[in-house]
Write a structure and sequence with these properties.
The structure is a single chain. By secondary structure, this protein is an alpha/beta fold. It is 40% helix and 13% strand. The protein has a 9-stranded mixed beta sheet with strand order 2-1-3-5-4-8-9-7-6, sandwiched between helices. Helix 5 packs antiparallel against helix 12, helix 8 packs across helix 9 and helix 8 packs across helix 10.
């Protein structure tokens, strides 16, 4: 259990992890949490599954991302609940329960970085580390009403972070304040390797997938970004459904390569949704590979060219507010499919994407995303501060 009461159900229930930060540094006085995919020396990384916890020993080295936060003076106040092996977007862990979304009562926090988002939104931490493969920082940030970033792929060290699909995995983080997002970025990101071109364009097919109420709510922030940077004609990605299929197949192959041997050896107990996804990953991996990898390379090159000429791209982070807790079936799948259809853009092209809280629909948060060229992460965070 965490070192404090946990009314948010944000922290892992089986271990206390609390480390003081360095006596001085740029993050002195900041409390942070880390998703239970990040190694902390002397503690078992549970990855959201009791059988993973039982079949692995304590970490011997702390993940560099955690160590960097500590060295900058931040205090680690606990490890947070994750969806099982991070293979979910809904944040409802079958074994450990659902963290509380304080900004959308009765609704899920989304995932897989559910506990990290819940801890920050609920004030139990000032910032929190998460991982984002297909949207696992961006989506919880949007529906919990906080800031969140998926950095450029490879920008923050993944060492000591349990992988899901390595060519998509990134280390991201959350905060309630844009300024703190930027301060954490200064610690974790190093210097940018790409510049932002002045200009902002909407991704038209991402806006089309969003509910009309979401589009209307985020419009004032969209207009501010366009006024600040210069409005450019909308960009149509085209074939978002097809890109989602490509993403899912590539991700599934990597997931089975990473986790298949352990699953076949241990036969772990998964919740029904994660169990079904793992079986699907097994089936995909058993078939000959298609042309998805080649298509991904072409897509990444196309996105780099677009961003290099236009500037940043704007899109709703999620198409709707957070689903109700316990929602299953077609409604749950629709939210997942529409969300992944837009989050897969940055995942496939390895781009940075920042969520900015942009208002409320029916009392629940929604967010606007800024997407920039690979390597422009800190510039995106500076822009988020200017738009806040």
């Amino acid at each position: 259990m965490a070192d404090h009461d946990d009314p948010l159900n944000a922290f892992i229930p089986f271990d206390r992890v609390h480390l003081a930060g360095a006596p001085a540094g740029p993050l002195k006085g900041i409390r942070f949490a880390a998703k239970d995919l990040f190694d902390v020396a002397g503690h078992v990384t549970g990855c959201g599954n009791p059988d993973w916890l039982a079949s692995h020993g304590p970490a011997t080295v702390t993940a560099p991302a955690v160590a960097q936060m500590l060295a900058a003076g931040a205090e680690l106040v606990g490890k947070t609940i994750t969806d099982e092996l991070a293979y979910s977007l809904n944040g409802q862990n079958f074994h450990y329960g659902t963290p509380v979304n304080v900004n959308a009562p009765g609704r899920i926090p989304c995932g897989s970085s559910s506990g990290s988002a819940a801890a920050v939104a609920g004030g139990a931490a000032d910032s929190a580390l998460g991982s984002d493969t297909g949207g696992s920082v961006r989506v919880p940030a949007s529906v919990c009403g906080i800031y969140g970033i998926r950095p450029s792929h490879g920008r923050v060290s993944l060492e000591g972070v349990n992988p899901l699909a390595p060519s998509f995995d990134t280390v991201g983080w959350f905060a309630r304040e844009s300024g703190l997002m930027e301060r954490v970025g200064a610690v974790l990101l190093g210097e940018d390797t790409a510049n932002l071109v002045a200009g902002a364009a909407r991704i038209s097919d991402a806006f089309a997938l969003a509910e009309p109420t979401v589009r209307a709510t985020i419009e004032p922030l969209v207009a501010r970004a366009e006024a600040m940077l210069g409005r450019r004609p909308p960009v149509e990605i085209g074939g978002l459904g097809d890109w989602l299929v490509a993403f899912r197949k590539l991700q599934a192959r990597e997931i089975w390569e990473v986790h298949g041997p352990w699953i076949e050896k241990v036969h772990p107990r998964f919740g029904p949704e994660v169990a079904a996804r793992m079986e699907w990953a097994r089936s995909v991996a058993s078939q000959p590979a298609g042309d998805e990898a080649d298509r991904r390379r072409a897509f990444a090159a196309r996105m780099a060219a677009v961003l290099g000429s236009i500037g940043i791209l704007l899109l709703p982070t999620t198409p709707d507010i957070a689903p109700l807790r316990g929602l299953e079936g077609a409604s749950s799948q629709s939210f997942r499919d529409r969300t992944l259809s837009t989050t897969c853009i940055a995942s496939l092209a390895r781009l940075p994407q920042v969520n900015i809280p942009a208002g409320r629909v029916n009392g629940c948060p929604v967010g606007l995303s800024l997407m920039g060229p690979r390597g422009s992460d800190r510039a995106l965070l500076r822009l988020a501060v200017q738009l806040s």
